[in-house]
Amino acid sequence: xxxxxxxxxxxxxxxxxxxxxxxxxxxxxxxxxxxxxxxxxxxxxxxxxxxxxxxxxxxxxxxxxxxxxxxxxxxxxxxxxxxxxxxxxxxxxxxxxxxxxxxxxxxxxxxxxxxxxxxxxxxxxxxxxxxxxxxxxxxxxxxxxxxxxxxxxxxxxxxxxxxxxxxxxxxxxxxxxxxxxxxxxxxxxxxxxxxxxxxxxxxxxxxxxxxxxxxxxxxxxxxxxxxxxxxxxxxxxxxxxxxxxxxxxxxxxxxxxxxxxxxxxxxxxxxxxxxxxxxxxxxxxxxxxxxxxxxxxxxxxxxxxxxxxxxxxxxxxxxxxxxxxxxxxx
Length: 330
Fold this sequence. Notes:
- With 330 residues, the protein is an alpha+beta fold.
């Protein structure tokens, strides 16, 4: 596999008929946690986003994961464009996928704001969350019948495991994460409550064993850009055939967690309700999604991937309360 670089990227794009190299400008785009990601702006103003999967994760090079992850992302979009073409517009348009190079070229959906920033400032619109829930529900229902056929093409086991262990295992086992002593003690207390660890174990099993629908796998608010009120969902590297409640639970968690600092709790409640209304889940799926949300909030408070929102001990403590309450919900 050829590693793309800033100097040669415009010429590579021109060779593939995407844009003219002369006068093109290359700059980093997004957080770049997993893949090498660049924005390329042509002299005529045309803009594209280029992602290349490399064996070592971009921000965490100690982790090496099969570059097939970007193939699964490309397949996720291709399946949705075939099965739910209307809803697939939530995803950025793919302009080129070069599988040998493990490079995906997409439309640049900027200018847009991240959903987590909008939630944090109290500016997120319920209509955005409704549309996100509607998208997830449509995808899950439309792919349920094809799940057995899709599963072999989405055997994304390495990314699924890397993600799953950081959600369900590592935050709740002995670790050396930089957690304040008081917060660690409160976490231990929360985990010692009746059935908390048992529920986490049950959810872990469901995450790994379920083969119900095609799921995105990482519907966190940082992966959702918003144009006006329209959500655009990014980064499907963890796409697999699994538990649809997991996607809904991840999305729910990243709305609910903003209650730790919300000046108006009603704004969070309205967005949560819109997300669920858009999805229209059956009661059992919603209950499981809320428990998944509880695990996600707990791990974001005391795990390796702590949210910036939870940077103070007081907010992380409040997140423990929120997560534990969701884990205990029926």
